[in-house]
Specification:
Blueprint: E1 3-7, H1 12-26, H2 36-45, E2 50-54, H3 63-74, E3 80-85, H4 93-102, E4 107-110, H5 112-115, H6 124-131, E5 136-139, H7 154-163, E6 169-171, H8 180-186, E7 193-195, H9 205-214, E8 220-221, H10 231-242, H11 246-254
Helix pairs in contact: 8-9
Amino acid sequence: MRTDCHAHVFPPRTARHAVASLGARYGVDCAGKGTLEDLLERERAAGMERCVILCAAATPGQVVAVNDFALSLQGHSPQVAAFGTIHPAFPAWERELERLKAGGIRGLKVHPDFQHFRLDDPRLLPLLEAAQDDFCFLFHIGDALPPEKSPSCPYKLAALLDRFPHLRCVAAHLGGYRQWSHALEALVGRDLWLDTSSCLPLLEPALLKALLRKHPPDRILFGSDYPLFDPADALKRLQAAAGLSDAALERYCTNADALFPSTGHEPRDEGPVRHGAAKEGH
């Protein structure tokens, strides 16, 4: 099933403001309206059969409300798979994980920069331990800051993978937004998925090709980062910049079947495949 693995939408009453804030934060004119209807229309135009919508709470006090929205998205149709949110400072996270699981959600978005904590925060450890059997994690990785000052650098995620070797994990933005050379050193080739969202035009073609060449091709996921970018345009830019064949691009669009069954609503039972050494934020 052709899947856009990285998208965001907002409630209709806040979508316009949220899109304007996103555009200002990342210095782009957002392509989309930020609504579910606009996203699904654009996904159909791009030939996508499913989209993964990522939700993140900026503060602990927003966790329940944001997850209410995620649960409403999850129940929309089999073409929509929603990721819920959690925060290490939210005291009732165990109960919230059970609520998400009961509602059919099987993924969690973690955005340390947007949520104001660091990936090396020890409060994350019991949460990851408790959730790893039932949820896939998608981590925003990278920042313009140097890695040691970045809340979400590739090295911090690599340390978590060392501690939790069976964690089902997607590193957004090819492993490190604006930190791609560090992603190449710390994450590429490891037992995780990388998504392609928000890498172009900032990522130079030679480094893009190196990242894609050195990571297992079945562990790369297409992501548009809608509403920042249009899915069809993101596909075209990725194929042109990376010099991908139609078959290679199609593989990236369908690799999500290893993480999500055809409906996008049930968990996997088997562990991850091994490859040896290996507001919403975007």
